[in-house]
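Hello Y.,

Per our agreement to keep a running log of every chain we model this quarter, I'm adding this entry. I've kept the format consistent with earlier entries: sequence first, then predicted structure.
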Amino acid sequence: MEMLESLFRLYAAHCDARWWIGPRPDGPADSVPRAIAAHIGYPTARHDPFVPPGLLTLNFQQVAYVLAVAGTVGLAYGFRAPRSDDFKSAALALNALGSNRNFVANGLWSADADGSMEWTALSSATFDCGLIGFDRDHAFTFWVEEED
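Predicted structure for the entry above:
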């Protein structure tokens, strides 16, 4: 988890990010994301992001992309895709989790978006982007907020 923590520190130095890494909270898998988000004071959004349709379950490639977006790309004023190197760094750091890993995020943040991006807010900010991950033993979250 050291590589993931180093990446979070690097990203957080350049954006308004909240993050946490620690032991996986106890409880069934469907309650773990809420417990992880609570470590950084979320949710603060008007609507509960943990009820359907809420957060999306993502695969490894998708969540690496979302982490690269959250850590390296501005969310306001014209979305752009993260650089290939940023995606590779995110994927490498996320490999710290074991094989039985679970990921959720508030959107896909696709480079293919036609300006109609949709996401589920976890915060009360104008824009937010982030992810929550956990395996049998470890957990983390990284979340970025932006105002226009």
